[in-house]
Model the fold of this input.
Amino acid sequence: KDGDLDEAEALDTGADDYLTKPFSFPVLVARIRALLRRTTGRSPVAVEAGDLRIDPGSRRVWRGDVEIGLTTRQFDVLEFLMRRAGQVLSKTEILDGVWEYDFEGDPNIVEVYIRRLRTRIDEPFQRHAIETMRGAGYRLAADGG
Done:
């Protein structure tokens, strides 16, 4: 097939990836993220807000010395908030930043994930890292609550 030969030639001459038409937009976005991970050549830097700490490379979370287990999506939401600690983020910004283009559903899903995160990272520790900013969105306290 000509397509296979084209792909082989592109890869042999230095291309990092090859995408044929038609393609899925979420797959394109995932391939771009994979390429970006390879080009950085290093693990993502740990992020801290007070005693709340995440390690994006291992996808682990701690509150002080206590490790907290999160689902993949919960981790993604928390990382998005932590990388923007102190900033008010609307539901739309969180959806665009975490779910990107593969989200088709109720934007109130953000509220669901915020509530679940609070039950994991705040309530057991009597903390309030994630603040609701009425009519505006959410903010992760820069000091971790």
